[in-house]
Automatic annotation (TrEMBL):
The lineage of its organism: Eukaryota, Metazoa, Ecdysozoa, Arthropoda, Hexapoda. It is a multi-pass membrane protein. Pfam families: IRK (PF01007), IRK_C (PF17655). This is ATP-sensitive inward rectifier potassium channel 12. Gene3D superfamilies: 1.10.287.70, G protein-activated inward rectifier potassium channel 1.
Amino acid sequence: MRTDPESPETPVCREEAQLLSDEWLKVKTVPANGNLSPGIYYPTVTKRSVLVRRPLSAEYLYLLSCFRALVRLVSVCFMSEWCLVVVTGLAADRCALSILKYRRRPPERRVDAHGGGVVEHRHGQVRRTRRRAILKNGECNILKSKIAQRRLRFLQDMFTTLVDAQWRWTLLVFTLSFILSWLGFALIWWLIAFTHGDLEDDHLPPMQEESGWKPCVANIYDFTSCFLFSIETQHTIGYGARTTTEECPEAIFIMCLQSIVGVMIQAFMVGIVFAKMTRPKHRTQTLLFSKFAVVCQRDGELCLMFRVGDLRKSHIIGASVRAQLIRSRTTKEGEMLAHYQTELELNADGCDSNLFFIWPITMVHRINAESPFYAVSAADVLQERFEIVVILEGTIESTGQTTQARSSYTTSEILWGHRYVPLVTYNRERQGYEVDYSKFEETVQVDTPLCSAKELDEFYGNQADRRSIENAEPLVLRMPEKRTIEPQPAKAEEKNGDYTVTL
């Protein structure tokens, strides 16, 4: 246990201290004239507020050990050995989790007048958050309501509706389509047999040879026989017991019609299931976005960065990444645009947003004069409400389909003064590059200005002006030279036919 020199009253555990991205930061401003206070290094990163997580006391550890022993005793008495391991581990984890939840009070949340969330922290700071339009898993957090003729519009595009529906509804429609078609044609076969008189007692199959009766469909007794014949006809099973005869032309027509309808239903439903299983949406499960975005300096400029990765060996061809900023904006006329979208310029290393996506890549947005974050400082990030939506698009190498993966970052998911840890190394044993995805989310804290990029440019400009003045040659004062007036050529003027010369 150590004590923080800036706040001696607050003990901080070195091993369990966790930096919070959404706590207030101490911001040092630069005067307009560029003069810095003596003894202060600028730009620099001041210390952040930390969440103190003290170790569990001896009483909690004793209770936890007793609980584990009790669970083991019950497991030995009533369960097998493998259940003992599972139950003991789950019980211990749940117990520890409940203790941690009890010891840590979550921040209070409420909703403000603008529809955004307001988070009140332990020390009284109030920070506004924005509700997500895009969830972290890429789903759109949008509910569409009050649509005129909604069911009719969706039924007109039945194929897309079934592909987008959940699996239980797709399988239900798949099953009902076959069962209803079997029952419908079974009813038609029963009506044909009933109107022809094949279901009378003396016209049933055992009496047909004696009476010389020729039915429309052989070996039909009742509706059950018609249902079995409908299934055999639609799926061309052909057991050989029930067959159509040339006695009834309508029976021949219905047999041809049912065969065509059966093929159409099979093709339609198989196409839906195949399209649902091969949707490019499932490819996005192996495309990763970093949980947090970071802000740090790169080549003297403040940069907003996030990381993207691909878990599969089959690559994304023509991958491109773009980002859009969603925040409120007020026009000159006073109109409030609650969800105004702004495109953010991205690049990866020395390339543009088009990627050669063979390993995880860090996308960089340079905060310059053209960036919407040019006047945003670390403290402003805590007060503003905005969302950065990132979109990864490309063609799947194995199927040739276009896929799109999405994610978003809110103000609470931007770590100011952090940088990603390198995760690509060369493995000499395997003679190839190795990607350690355990470091995909890992960041380190680096020295980063807490001011905005605009203030940083002004500071660097003042420093450059000072260096130019200090390194310039000394000024030499000289008397101004006398100006000599050259005589102008004479001009001739005419007055009433006479010429006069003026000097």
